[in-house]
Design goal:
Chain B: InterPro entries: Aminotrans_V_dom (IPR000192), Cysteine_dSase (IPR016454), PyrdxlP-dep_Trfase (IPR015424), PyrdxlP-dep_Trfase_major (IPR015421), PyrdxlP-dep_Trfase_small (IPR015422). Chain B: This is Cysteine desulfurase family protein. Chain B: Keywords: Pyridoxal phosphate. The structure holds two protein chains of two kinds. Chain A has two domains: about 170 residues, VC0802-like, CATH 3.30.2130.30; about 220 residues, Rossmann fold. Chain A is built from 14 helices and 15 strands. In chain A, the strands form two sheets. In chain A, strands 1, 2, 3, 4, 5, 6, 7, 8 and 9 form a nine-stranded mixed β-sheet that branches. In chain A, strands 14-13-10-11-12-15 form a six-stranded mixed β-sheet, with helices on both faces. In chain A, helix 6 links the parallel strand 11 and strand 12. The longest helix of chain A has 20 residues. Chain A is elongated and about 90 Å long. By secondary structure, chain B is α/β, with parallel strands linked by helices. Chain B contains eleven helices and twelve strands. The longest helix of chain B has 21 residues. The chains are: A alpha/beta, B alpha/beta. The interface between A and B is medium-sized, with 11 and 17 residues.
Amino acid sequence: MIWKEILIRYGELSTKGRNKKDFINRLRANIRHTFSDIAPLDIATERDRMHIALENEEQYEVLMEKLPTVFGIQSFSPVAVCNKDLDDMKKLSLIIMEQFKEQELTFKVEVRRSDKTFPLESHEIQREIGGHVLRNNPNISVQVKKPDVELRIEVRQDAIYMMAQIIQGAGGMPVGSNGKSLLMLSGGIDSPVAGYLLMKRGVRLEAIHFFSPPYTSDNSLEKVKVLANELTKFGANIRLHVIPFTEIQVLIKDRVPSNTIMTTTRRMMMRIADEVRKEIGALGIVTGESLGQVASQTLESLTAINDVTNTPILRPLIAFDKLEIIDIAEQIGTYETSIQPFEDCCTIFTPANPKTKPKVEKVTYYESFTEFDELIDRAVRNREVYKFPEENNMKDKFEGLL
Amino acid sequence: MIYLDNSATTKPHKEVLNTFVQVNESFYANPSSIHEAGVEANTLLDRARGQIADLLHTEGQYVLFTAGGTESNNFAIFGISKANTHKGKHIITTEVEHPSVLEAVKSLQNEGYEVDFLKVDENGVISLQELQAKLRKDTVLVSMMHVNNEMGAIQPIEEAAKIIHENSRAAFHVDAVQSFGKLPIFFNGEEGPDIITISGHKIHGLKGSGIIAFRKKMNIIPLLLGGGQEQGLRSGTVAVPLAVATAKAARIAIEMMEQSTEKYRRWHNDLLVFLTEFGENIHLLSKETGAAHILSFSVKDLKGEILINALQKRGIIVSTSSACSSKQKKTSHVVEALNMLSNFKKGVIRLSFGALNTDEDILEFKKAFTDVMKELKGDKNQ
């Protein structure tokens, strides 16, 4: 294998003065975590880049496939090595440029000669290698100012290092570098996208889901678990808190006017989420709400729902169109799961005409006749917690069949 | 019994049969049901789909399970042609296709579609120039087999794909029934097919199972209407046990491909040398450039059927040119297309190798064939 290491360039964290060390350490830990299944990686960090040593073909392939999902990486390049010998360098340069063979493009050779004892000067290396590449690739021409491809050659003490390909990373910040929040995960299209966007900004997530059997089935819970699991591929573990919600939901239906059910239900969910948030030490609550999408997502509704807490409610999708949200869901691979048609707790007991402009005072008044606190305590206490990524028991069941 | 008729069908692998039984026992629910058992069956079905998609370099949603190669071919031809009448009604195929393609396009011919049948040379291969010349603005479909079932000729799929995609809006369907697991065949953007047909029982899977796979979303209408399974493209409760068994057979076929084709090529070369020893009594239909697992040849002035019976007495199973046409009296269309001397046309037999054959099988065949030739041709053989 010609590949010796992968060079990683940091994203925004390059600009973060004194917290930088923490961020780099966080990124390194996240990368190690993402690739824990291919043996511990040897990662060396520098001020503005990171090197992952490659030991075998498998590591190379897995890294190339999954690195684009890790937040905090601006771009990365596979780096090849060869002996400090001009013929070897020429050979390697062709292998590296091979991938660009079919396209018409411009290139230049950039040399960093840190081993000053190397017999060839930088410009001599440039001329030798550049000429060799040009002679063997009729589609490629030289352009020094703004080339499409830069063939970078580093003459180091131990060997020659070469790279040309620059692959875009996911950008953003390393997950965990911006604290922890609790994601309200319904099973729909929006909430996983909201979670993803916050993770991209470095927020570590736990998730909460409201489960109302028998009105909602095990399938809908299964779907939420799959979604939580899918979010873990962006570089962090996620815990899912499943709240037994049937009792509260049935009580709400009995106690408040039908056009207020929805608002009160949301308020109770928010209160429960806030309790869980306190217990797990999260700072904010994340929702997939998008302004005006449904009755509960008008500004009036959001005000009435928000009224139960002072905790920051993070709504990254508030100004997104549905189609924009779907686009992201498809990109991150949650869309197919989200559109499976199972009842969730938001769609049962929905009245024909929910209030789109509920008034806080009225809602509070209707709720004042019922003692919800104890039920909320109980729901929080009786929640079930799942950890992801989980060793998938479904997969084991099919073991050997395929 | 030495079975050398693997292009007609293969013996299922033990592992594949076990999968079929286990899935029937444990995951028999209808994958469209919303109860837990149904969801579980559906999850398994999707895994099978995904596995095949990986092997073909496409996505799970573009892999559909059918009842076999014939259905997949019919679906590709009728489905594409009828969905794209706004683009035109012109189809291109070759004169050496399997009947499930030829009969389908002929039936469209009766409905007013225009069909061009590409000629093949003495090696059974089409001419790319002719293909390019026949492509028109209103061509909606090009259907071409990858490996010919009767004599093993390999069509230049990659080159054909480039020509088709550069010069027309036609969909490119490849019948890979005889090539999957023997030659690389997968989706590859503009340099590969748009639709691929695979049959389960030709790759040591089970009869009654097939696959049609697409490179991307296609404009196609279903053959079977009903409950809207398989995204509405193939109604009828999906046979999960067959689908999973097919996925397993396909995985094994690809994993063993290198190893088995190396073996087939050795036998193929060995037998080509062996057969030339019979001089002008033998005409080779298969060439070194053809697929390694099919070897067909003809014996002068003899009927294939007689050869088959004589070999069978010695425990060796081979076939005339193809199982589908062997019961018909007339000469096969492929043999006709190859332009052979008339005293060789009746005596075509085909050997086809499979994963379960061994070196001894080939030795035994050679012994038996030498005997048979002595018996039937006597001294003239010398």
